[in-house]
Amino acid sequence: MSILEVSGLHVDIPTENGTVHAVKDVSFDVAEGEFFGIVGESGSGKSVLVQSVMGLIPKAVTTGSVRFQGDDLLTLPSERLRRLRGKEISMIFQDPLSSLHPQYTVGWQIVEQIRAHEKVSRQAAKARAIELLRKVHIADAASRFDAYPHQFSGGMRQRVMIAMSLSLDPKLIIADEPTTALDSTVQAQILQLLGEMKDDFGATVLMISHDLGVMASVANRVMVMYHGEQVELGRSAQVLRTPREQYTISLIESSSFTQSERQAPLGRTAAATDAPADDPAPIAQVSEVSLSFAQRRGAERTVLDRISLDVRRGETLGLVGESGCGKTTLARTIAGLVRPSEGTVRFDGRDLAEVRGADWRRLRQRVQVVFQDPFSSLNPKRRIGSIVEDPLRIHRVGNARQRRERVLELLEQVGLDPAHYNRFPAQFSGGQRQRIGIARAIALNPDLVILDEPVSALDVTVQAQVLQLLDDLQRDLGLTYLFISHDLAVVRHMCDRIAVMENGRIIELDDAETIYRTPREPFTKKLLAASFLEAVGTSGQGTTLQEVSA
Predict the structure, then answer these.
(1) Angle between helices 184-201 and 522-535 (to 10 degrees)
(2) Cα maximum dimension of the chain
(3) From start to end residue, where is composition biased (Low complexity) (predicted)?
(4) For the segment 338-356, what is each residue's pLDDT rounded down to a tens digit?
(5) Positive or negative CA dihedral for 462, 463, 465, 469?
(6) Phi, psi at 231, each rounded to 5°
(7) 22: exposed, middle or buried (C-beta count within 10 Å: 0-12, 13-18, 19+)?
(8) pTM for the predicted model, two decimal places
(9) Domains of the chain by range and CATH?
(10) Could you tell me which residues come within 8 angstroms of residue 342 by beta carbon, excluding any fewer than 6 positions away?
(11) Residue 11: how many CB atoms within 10 A of its CB?
């Protein structure tokens, strides 16, 4: 029996540049208890489709029918649809920070969702919220209940969103790229949790993903989308192993590249030659840095613990570890955005604690950051042309005409249509927003670029393009990269050296091939094992984590 039936769905979105036909005549059904997957490139209409199912695109013109347990969601009164959201149908959004209110603790937000739909005491709702945080593997859940969204890593914020979506035991869970920001070990835990909800509570899961390996491992059936149209639909084993359509074949070939060919380092020998291991003047130096954050009730949480690290000129240094281990906090400390509690951070030989006034302005031009969460770093009320132009305008580079030409060039470089110069961030997919962030970061040709999960939101066909772009820019402009990622295949492909973090400490640091071939630490071996399982997700071999670790 079908819990969701979509028939002849069209979604048209009016824009200043004309109407975007985001979804075109799509039909499918989702059976009760099924794990149904939707795959396709960024901008293919996946997110628009599921958001229209939830009635979350107010200006869109939607035709066709979307029946949930017999009721057409497109014609339901707004109050009835509001009651369905959360209680009967829940949604895990791709961008957790924009879905969590920055002024309220995560625990309060989960409690309010529960009490909005159920008549329970605040104490009972709090107990349920803490248990949900434990289920999604947030350590010390009782104390983190009172933490704010900005005090969590990107991956941990996604786990909070998953906990919130599960809080009312919904019949249908719509998950829009729920594991995009998560490292491979936590990704497996979240997928297992969604599977448990399906099996233990009879929930149905409709999941969007650009990761074909993930989809092959969890989905019963898969629908492939391209430019708003349904390309292929069938059992996941058939669609992902013996596809009929050329577009599906191209997606799988791109996925195969990301899982195998990219594991060989890309042009790293030249960079290592330019920056030998005994370079006496690294571009950035971290010495005995520790950082603790004050929490409520006087407690402190140590995020960085006596870290020492050099970033050599011209190299790409990879930083890997599980979500919440302190990777992003360390990167922000190196960029001068966070001041350490102890220790020193030097850029080009100068202690950042001594930098003042105009020197900070010059430093900002030399160090740029691509953030993990692109939407939260893009002003939703400004057009992307203006956003990308900001660094040029702030640092008084060229005149207005020259800056516009540079912005159009940057948009094309990162794979965006320059004609979209006047669009707003909300008019782009998650992967496209990430490319906007990359364009802004490279606008000034900086010395050091900190890349915080720069391709985590991109589908497999775009990942290779962006990684090649970053490599070309490094070679042509002499850039240095600090590359943060939970995808170890990407890190091996891009990096000269790799630093492994666990619980706020660097536990292993060596050249990329040594880390991959002869890791010393048990935690590093665990990360590599989980990464291997992700890479063979479409092979059907049934390899277990224990077998790989052995």
Answers:
(1) 60
(2) 70
(3) 269-280
(4) 999 999 999 998 999 998 8
(5) positive
(6) -95, -45
(7) buried
(8) 0.68
(9) 1-83+206-259 (3.40.50.300)
(10) 288, 289, 290, 291, 306
(11) 23
